[in-house]
Amino acid sequence: MTYKIEGKYFELSNEDAAEIRKNMKDFDISMDDAARMFFEDWEYIPAGSKVKIERVKDLQTKKEYAKAEKPRNAKPRERKVDETKGNLLAGCRVYLEGKGANVIAVKTETEINFEYEGASYTLKLTKHRAPK
Q1: Beta carbons of 115 and 124 less than 8 angstroms apart
Q2: How far is residue 56's CA from residue 3's CA, in Å, rounded to a whole number?
Q3: Mean pLDDT across the stretch 115-122?
């Protein structure tokens, strides 16, 4: 629990909050009166004073995160080679070159970039998962 007294914030521990709840039960008083009794007993405020005691929502502390020196995924992952896709793209490349296309680049088992009759094209091959 956090209280504001004359512009100062007091954050109470669990034991202090338990003492306030105990006083509420023992003396059959409100939480405001029990808090005033607590602060007077522990001499945060003078006894019998008319100081305003206000309960506020708990103060939220800003979390600070440290930056790591090395990247998170430091180890390289080994990629699986798909022979079937490689063979299909090799066949597509032979067909395109036979039609008179100029093959510019072949990305590993994924796509072929080529030019045909002055226009630029990309042929991308995607392997779908088997249905469940």
Answers
A1: no
A2: 6
A3: 92
